[in-house]
Amino acid sequence: MSSQGGAAEERRTVTRDLIDKLLKERQEMLVLFCEVAGLEPYHRSASLDQQLQTFCQVLIDYIAFGHFEVFGHVSNGNERRSGVLQVAEKIYPEFVRASEIAVSFNDRYDLSDHELQLDHLSEDLCQLGEELAVRIELEDQLLATMLDR
């Protein structure tokens, strides 16, 4: 019986660590999002280039962690609670849509392989912000269920 309790406690610790890391990455991404959004009007400069590059990198890290680590944890059988599985299944399509918008933003504004065009940065940030808000709301639903709230 005590080994079952130890395994359950270990699973809870893994879940809490996963959630803590996601929330930390989310916070870092949101701070950088606000910094970039606060630079409007956008004029090409080394500073803007660097801030956009950093933001894109952190954005993709956050998106990937949520997608592959958090949803991976649930879908790989590491999560057995039916409530968590039901919430994950329900929110997944919208979660993926928000992730795709973020990846598209990165493809447009990551400087690693193309010239930066700022013509639509303001509108693209606005759309990204709306999708990030949706994604965060969906994540919070899943995380609350994972934490049994």
Automatic annotation (TrEMBL):
Classification via InterPro entries: Rsd/AlgQ_sf, Sigma70_reg_Rsd_AlgQ
GO biological processes: regulation of DNA-templated transcription
Keyword annotations: Transcription, Transcription regulation
Family annotation (Pfam families): Rsd_AlgQ
The UniProt record lists the keyword Protein biosynthesis: no
The keyword Hydrolase is assigned to this record: no
Family (UniProt): Belongs to the Rsd/AlgQ family.
Protein name (Swiss-Prot/TrEMBL): RNA polymerase subunit sigma-70
Organism for this UniProt entry: Candidatus Thiodiazotropha endoloripes
Species classification: Bacteria, Pseudomonadati, Pseudomonadota, Gammaproteobacteria, Chromatiales
